[in-house]
Design goal:
There is one protein chain. The chain is α/β, with parallel strands linked by helices. The protein is 26% helix and 26% strand. The protein has helices spanning 45-51, 122-144, 162-173, 188-194, 226-234, 258-262, 276-286, 295-298, 307-315; strands at residues 4-11, 18-25, 34-43, 63-64, 68-76, 86-90, 105-108, 114-115, 154-156, 178-182, 198-201, 217-221, 236-244, 266-269, 299-303, 322-326. Strands 3, 5, 6, 7, 8, 15 and 16 form a 7-stranded mixed sheet that branches. Strands 11-10-9-12-13-14 form a 6-stranded parallel sheet. A 3-stranded antiparallel sheet has the order 2-1-4, with no helix packed on it. Strand 1 and strand 2 (18-25) form a beta hairpin.
Amino acid sequence: MGEEFRAYRVYDNGKFGEGRMCDMRRAELDSGNVVVRAAFASVNYKDALTARGRAKIIRRFPCVAGIDVSGTVESSGDARFKPGDAVLVHSFGMAVDHDGSYAELCRFPAEWVIPLPAGLTLFEAMALGVAGHTAALAVDYMELNGLAPGNGKVLVNGATGGVASIAIDILAQRGYQVVAMSGKPAQAEYLRSLGASEVVARDAWRDEGRPLETPLWAGAVDSVGGKQLSWLVRSMQRDGVIAAPGNAGGVEFAGNVLPFILRGVRLLGVNVDNPMPVKQRIWQRLATDLKPRHLERIARCIPFGDLDRAFDDLLAARVTGRQVVDFGKSGSEPDFGAR
């Protein structure tokens, strides 16, 4: 690869910026001591908001978009990494105040770089990406707070999204009775194929407006927030556990303290920007006991040049599961590794 390479950068245009494909030179990359040749990156809701200028996320312009990447080390000024090492990177300041992942070459501080765990391919790492890391972190936190398969049903809302699809797969393979809640009735068979034992419509929940609703759920992975989270808190069983990684339905929710006092409900925030030992522990679990069984159903490859269409599809709720950017030849077969 020569000095010039392709990148998707966000420029200072419009209210919150505007993204477009461009040529970049190595000297323009942000500082760091590890250069990574990108193999795959994932398409996340945050990436789409950034590229289309829908939210104030990027803090300086121009900036390469994309919040996660897998690839091989091209060069390293840190003894922990050598050329050819398979690695992944996400979080920290990627696509906020440091160049992100949508570039054929990326440069990061060595402290951000995670060796690819044995048991994952480069493709699988980004079929999971930040969404998979979020889902695994949610399950990890819930189980640390008492959730177990024998406790009762676990609801996963926003079920066809990336985080939720992976959460369904992980929970089902661990023996949980998973109820998937979705506004896409045509995707019911897809959700059952991931392990959901029940699929219910997004408008099936009934909020009676009482301080405590009928107890239904032992656990929940809530990607929606807003009114659904308000209802969920009041609909949990005794010692129920909710992991809250998303806000597709709004950032505010109404509530009262009775579910927490009388039922011992636990509401757990899920933030993936954690210290490196936590990241590495969760990625090790994603490569072993929390590895989803059906990534080939959840994720599909798209060429790097199709990013704009991928963003529009995601924002228009036309996407089921995960879109994975392939920086190689379009149409290449994803490697799901050993089963």
